[in-house]
Amino acid sequence: MIDLECRELVKTFDRFTAVDGVSLVVEKGAFFSILGPSGCGKTTLMRMLAGFETPDRGEVRIKGRSMLGVPPNRRPVNMVFQHLALFPNMSVAENVGYGLRRRKTPRVEIHRRVQDVLSRVGLGDSVDKRIDQLSGGQQQRVAIARCLVLEPDVLLLDEPLGALDLKLREHMKVELKKLQSEFGTTFIYITHDQSEALAMSDRVAVMNRGVFEQVGSPQDLYYRPETPFVASFVGENNRWRGRIVHRDLEGRLQVRTEQGMSLYASAAGRGWDRAGQEVEVFVRPEMISLSLSAAHEEMHENRLEGQVVNILFDGSRSQVLVQQHGSDQEVAVNLPQAAEFSGLSEGAPVYLSWPSNRSHAFPFWA
Question: Which residues pair with 254 in a beta bridge?
Fold first, then answer.
């Protein structure tokens, strides 16, 4: 079943087009994220789904029903904002039951549903607490419970973790995914934080300048980006610019970079990858093998030598910055968790290699 469908949505403000022909389909019970930088149009899109903005063109359908002309309070959706807008003068139970009271739900029914939803979000013993007695994560769960108790078809979440500190955000990513799975409600989640989108979502739409650049699973976006923007925005990447020298029958490209080195990469798409075409080549730090000996360098087609210019220590996520010989470009590589690298220091010579299928080449349009 389809819970949410958008058809060619367009929204402009004066001469600025915030959303430009966006279409999407979200299945029942999915966790769907819209990921993009500030100003890409994701909040405007969310406001159109909620009914706070009217599209200039296109249509929003929920459960197969058109939402054209349907005001926000009559749509089967609820929204959780970054600033939670909880009522400080009400208890936890009163906050959660507020929407039910507005609907004139019988008191006994309100009590039952509030108790049930608070128990399911892990706040069954906080019914009578004031909002200021709760931690940031607990307040977040109250805001979500206040929406879920109304049993919406779709729950919209507008950067709900943005105001939390880093450690709490990491914890709440797990909590949100558990809650979504527990309730089975369709979540539409917008964020500029790729780690949130990748960790929680079934599918993600990467938005840029009012359009969807790519829609797919987190694995698709990470391992099989379709545009240079997706390759650069999702995850970390090293990047080179150059021109195609040769394309073999299997689609592998030989690229001569601006620094004069040869790289081998897989072409993203077909029909553009001809000799002379200017391209950008992307490779992720974790795809590159780091070695202290040139003897290991022959493992893969792409090989370069350099020296360590910096070590960014972060436990298991530590990285090494390597400056290529004959170039001022630095290459980021994940630091292997092996004893031979424990004494690695600045200035040490190192050798890098990676296979062509771990590099993605895209046409560069100036």
Answer: 246, 264
Give residues with Cβ within 8 angstroms of 223, minimum separation 6.
none
The first and second tokens of residue 168, run together, are 């709490």
- Report the run of H or E that residue 4 belongs to, with start and end: strand 2-13
Task: Tell me the H-state helices in the chain.
Answer: 42-50, 92-96, 98-102, 107-120, 136-148, 166-183, 194-200, 218-223, 228-233
Q: 236-363 in CATH: which number? A: 2.40.50.100
- Report pTM: 0.88
Q: Which CATH number fits domain 2-231: 3.40.50.1100, 3.10.450.50, 3.40.50.300, 3.30.365.10?
A: 3.40.50.300
The 10s digit of each residue's pLDDT in 183-204 is 899 999 999 999 999 999 999 9
**To the nearest whole percent, how much of the chain has pLDDT over 70?**
98
Listed by start position, the domains of the chain span: 2-231, 236-363
User: Are the beta carbons of 263 and 257 closer than 8 angstroms?
Assistant: yes
